[in-house]
Amino acid sequence: MVQEKKNVALGSVIAAIFITGFKLVIGLLTGSLGILSEALHSGLDMVAAMITYFSVRVSDKPADREHNYGHGKVENLSALIETLLLLVTCIWIISEAVHRLILGKLDIEVSVWSYVVVICSIIIDFTRSRALLRVAKKHNSQALEADALHFSTDIWSSTVVLFGLLCYQFLGWHKADSIAALFVAVIVLYVSYKLGRKAVDVLLDKSPIGTRKIVQDILTDFPEVLKYHGLKARTAGADTFIKFNVHFNPDLSLREVHEVCDKIESEIKKKVVRSEVYIHAEPEEISHLENEENDDIV
Question: What is the domain count for the chain?
Answer without folding.
Answer: 2
